[in-house]
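Q: I'm writing up a methods section and want to include an example of the input and output format. Could you take the sequence below and give the corresponding predicted structure tokens, formatted cleanly so I can copy it straight into the document?
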Amino acid sequence: MTRRPAPRPASRSRAKPARRAWRPSPPVLVATFERATARLPGIERRKMFGYPAVFARGRMVAGLLRERMVMRLAEPERTRFLAQPGAIPFVAMGRTMREWVVIPRAVLASPRTLAGWLAKALAQTRALPPKPARGAHRRR
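A: Here is the clean output for your methods example:
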């Protein structure tokens, strides 16, 4: 009688680990984002990592990630923004994103204040050079 080898323990399995599903943004936050960005001129709406985002000249201006709204701000506005209670730099996968901030609840609760900061983010993003076309920057 031929014996089969014992199955491998689960920890040694070569199967790929299951990807963790990202939680969708709360509907209230999605609605706030949609209202706040509705009047920004010349933006493009698309998804980034499955979450709503707005772009100008190929560069992301602002977007949602789970239960947070983030935006791009250059100096000196970023320093002014981060002085507000609850405002923090945006950290993704353990890395602080240089020009990105997390918008605190107090700003999210004030449509006028939020619109002002998003207008600054849009103006500063538009001042950057256009993002190169995909594949245009590859080495040969």
